Amino acid sequence: MQRTIFTEDHEAFRDSVRQFIAKEITPNLPDWEADGVIPRDFYKKTAEIGINGLQVPEQYGGGGIDSFLFNTVVYEEIGYAAASLGGFQVHLNTVLPYFLEYADEEQRDRWFPGFADGNLVSAIAMTEPGIGSDLAGVTTTAVRDGDDYILNGNKTFITGGINADLVIVVARTSKDPENRRKGLSLLVVEGNMPGFLRGRNLHKIGMKSSDTAELTFDNVRVPARNLLGEEGKAFGMLAHNLPQERLSIAITGLATATAAVNLAIDYAKERLVFGKALADFQNTKFVLAECATELQAGQALVDQALIALDGGTLTPADAAKVKLFCTEMQARVIDKCLQVHGGYGYMSEYPIARLYADARVTRIFGGTSEVMKSVISKSMGL
Ligand SMILES: Cc1cc2nc3c(=O)[nH]c(=O)nc-3n(C[C@H](O)[C@H](O)[C@H](O)COP(=O)(O)OP(=O)(O)OC[C@H]3O[C@@H](n4cnc5c(N)ncnc54)[C@H](O)[C@@H]3O)c2cc1C
């Protein structure tokens, strides 16, 4: 079905992004996967073609665009190319929005130029070894000491944790026994602050080009001017920004599922079984027809959610529904497309194998499918 959310400007931008991906991502992805991290100069290259600064205000060297649709074009194209660049996507889709929303004037002057020109890479550290889904249980502490906070705690699974110059850390600045959601704050830790220690780049079953790290904060002295937004209000800020993060994950899920169907169609046309093309068998046609229908349903949800996001009306429950559907659908579709590839689908050199491994985490990060169902059922009064 015809999509109606994009203009000619978006499509022209899409063409240039597609060319950039073919030149700069596709040929380099195997090396980045082997290294477990995307090189820093990649962020400069994407900045040169205007990707990093799309939403950064113009006075800081950005494009000053409020809409999320240009970003969507970028992440769709990365997905259509059967790639997932976790660290890069978290930097721009998940973390930058916190700065755009909550940075004060002084912080904007300090950091926005680096976001726009690719000199700064960022990450967000919510999850701790003992706390994931239950975010209100954060145990990392930040205690005020004069003009600083003293930060102590451990975070894990932090995407971009190796590359990041700025890490937004969710920490507890006070305790309210009546309400665990109160007293959480966002502190921006800079890469060179004494006591900020990066642990291992964790080995994962997929998303291998994305650096995922354990981070330790050992009496890190964080200046109070690095507090993002109001002290004690982080839970509300997280709840406000999570819908966009969840929609971004849904967009990537849908785009990579689309890539899988395209790969399976090509493969089925070429592969001969029992003397004829795999695509000639009714089962293959039916399986891929089911997949195409699932993609269409996901697309309708995503496009509706994008309109709501740009209009400021995307609710947490609606974003949860889109993430839940698109990531569960991504898993079903990619699994079927791998099956079409037979044994070759299980071989790492085939992109469908990478899509399969990369897809597994989208039902976990940004809130698990079970957490999405909790959010949705709460909105139903349950
Ligand atoms: C590759 C990767 C990258 C990540 N990147 C980041 C990052 O950049 N920053 C960051 O802060 N975090 C990041 N995470 C962490 C991610 O958000 C958490 O893994 C996720 O929120 C789940 O938390 P957990 O792993 O502690 O699982 P748990 O919370 O321990 O959950 C375990 C199981 O229990 C289920 N469960 C939990 N609560 C309920 C409930 N109320 N009802 C029913 N079932 C429930 C869960 O759905 C899950 O199946 C990343 C994780 C991965 C794997």
Record the SSE blueprint.
Layout (H helix, E strand, L loop, with lengths): L7 H18 L3 H7 L4 H9 L20 H12 L5 H17 L2 H13 L4 E4 L15 E5 L2 E12 L6 E7 L11 E7 L5 E6 L10 E12 L3 E2 L5 H37 L1 E2 L2 E2 L4 H29 L5 H25 L10 H9 L9 H11 L3
Parallel strand pairs: 1-4
Antiparallel strand pairs: 2-3, 3-7, 4-5, 5-8, 6-7, 9-10
Helix pairs in contact: 1-4, 4-7, 5-7, 7-8, 7-9, 7-10, 8-9, 9-10, 9-11
The chain binds flavin-adenine dinucleotide (FAD).
Oligomer: single chain
What's the CATH architecture name of the largest domain? Up-down Bundle
Order of helices and strands: HHHHHHEEEEEEEEHEEHHHH
CA gyration radius, whole angstroms: 21 Å
**What is the topology, as strand order, of the major beta sheet?**
1-4-5-8
Shape: globular
What top-tier CATH class of the largest domain fits best?
Answer: Mainly Alpha
Mean of the pLDDT scores?
97
Beta-strand content bin: 15-25%
CATH homologous superfamily classification of the largest domain: Butyryl-CoA Dehydrogenase, subunit A, domain 3
Helix and strand composition category: alpha+beta
Number of strands: 10
Q: Could you say which small molecules are bound to this protein?
A: flavin-adenine dinucleotide
Summarize the amount of helix as a percent range: 40-55%
**Separate helix tally:** 11
* Domain module tally: 3
Could you give the distance between the termini?
A: 35 Å
Main sheet makeup? 4 strands, mixed
Uncertain segments are none
